[in-house]
Amino acid sequence: xxxxxxxxxxxxxxxxxxxxxxxxxxxxxxxxxxxxxxxxxxxxxxxxxxxxxxxxxxxxxxxxxxxxxxxxxxxxxxxxxxxxxxxxxxxxxxxxxxxxxxxxxxxxxxxxxxxxxxxxxxxxxxxxxxxxxxxxxxxxxxxxxxxxxxxxxxxxxxxxxxxxxxxxxxxxxxxxxxxxxxxxxxxxxxxxxxxxxxxxxxxxxxxxxxxxxxxxxxxxxxxxxxxxxxxxxxxxxxxxxxxxxxxxxxxxxxxxxxxxxxxxxxxxxxxxxxxxxxxxxxxxxxxxxxxxxxxxxxxxxxxxxxxxxxxxxxxxxxxxxxxxxxxxxxxxxxxxxxxxxxxxxxxxxxxxxxxxxxxxxxxxxxxxxxxxxxxxxxxxxxxxxxxxxxxxxxxxxxxxxxxxxxxxxxxxxxxxxxxxxxxxxxxxxx
Length: 430
Ligand code: SDX
Hints:
One of its GO terms (cellular component) is cytoplasm. InterPro entries: Citrate_synth-like_lrg_a-sub (IPR016142), Citrate_synth-like_sm_a-sub (IPR016143), Citrate_synthase (IPR002020), Citrate_synthase_AS (IPR019810), Citrate_synthase_bac-typ (IPR024176), Citrate_synthase_sf (IPR036969), Citrate_synthase_typ-I (IPR010953). This protein is mainly alpha-helical. It folds into three domains: 6-52, Single Sheet (Rubrerythrin, domain 2); 93-266 and 381-388, Citrate Synthase, domain 1; 268-375, CATH 1.10.230.10. The chain has helices spanning 35-39, 75-81, 84-93, 99-110, 120-124, 132-142, 156-181, 195-204, 215-227, 235-245, 250-261, 269-280, 286-294, 315-330, 337-351, 353-357, 365-375, 382-402, and strands at residues 5-11, 14-21, 29-30, 59-62, 67-70, 73-74. The chain has a three-stranded antiparallel beta sheet. Strands 4-5-6 form a three-stranded antiparallel beta sheet. Helix 7 runs antiparallel to helix 18 (382-402) and helix 9 (215-227) packs antiparallel against helix 14 (315-330). It is globular, with a radius of gyration of 23 Å. The termini are far apart. Residues 231, 234, 265-267, 269, 293, 301-309, 358, 360, 363-365 line the site of s-citryldethia Coenzyme A (SDX).
């Protein structure tokens, strides 16, 4: 990054010069690393709306144009022409693989899809009605109790093995969480199936009869994985980075990311969005909910709408909307009432001054639930599917940070507005 430019700041009469760093794409950044030392002041930015927490070469988002690139490749092209494991290779290593590199990577991932047999016991400690995200946080965190040969983060080889293990085992763990919640036996991964087909097989096959994975559904599942793979410094990725900055092992860091993703303002929005669409139920009830979303005194928000970065259409939502039509047609689900409500809600909202003025558009979570429900998943599995898809993004960002010699523990400061210094008062004198 060229840093020939600078900005001048006047703090109580003292002039501070701040270098300006220029990116490959996107806004310049003010380098404030020396600000506290030079001017004895902090910057203040709750929610980090104007703060770059790191430099990264992995994913770029242009919120105004509605663009998303993985390692420079637009998401629309990757969703149309690539496949998830190739996208995993691209995010992890920075370049599209050659045929040999792809075969080697696919073999390495395939051969790590089983979990240690002892891990099956963890599931039995949960209630059957536990949310699968609760199970996943617990079981993924427990991986650090099993895979000690890939927890030394100072060893690049162990970082590599841990990355492949996480990408390979997350679908198996997510499928096990689903099977446990419906009282069916776990289905082992199969090495003759590709990544998405294997996940569908582990979720929907039963020992009592053969299960055929529809290649078109597997393709749709694979595309959903790709659309969710990474997204710059979102809340859960920032959680993984902050956890990793202390030197915590990668399994614990990914468990922290899963916990953060669960929130309805983040990855939990796909479940909340479908439940909202079901609650609206019919097109004639949409105006009532639009009014609730606009009412300052009503905490209700349109789930699947709005985004911290996108002030234009989320490019993933566009691809997901096309995919929803394809999958529902494939499944012979015509005039799906939820999809009709979603499309009409999108149309009405995008014409409404409130949403237009606040630049609120459908995001990745608006259509994904409709596809997943049509594929046979319960709403409780929507965020686990987001989590397994995002694991490659989390671990790629974690590897980038750990591999950076400048890496240091993340430790923000604060604006203290509490009580001033005061002396203790004995109980009898209060
Ligand atoms: C994801 O960061 C990422 O990249 C995340 C993600 C990823 O891939 O990792 O893209 C995945 O999390 C997508 C977002 C999923 N969440 C939802 O769909 C939940 C509903 N959306 C909102 O909660 C909200 O839009 C956020 C949380 C997504 C963004 O919130 P911001 O950036 O903090 O914006 P804000 O809350 O300050 O809202 C700005 C204004 C506010 O009104 P004013 O105070 O200015 O009057 O817009 C309003 C908000 O009230 N607003 C909404 C709204 N979202 C924002 N009003 C109604 N419905 C909404 N959905």
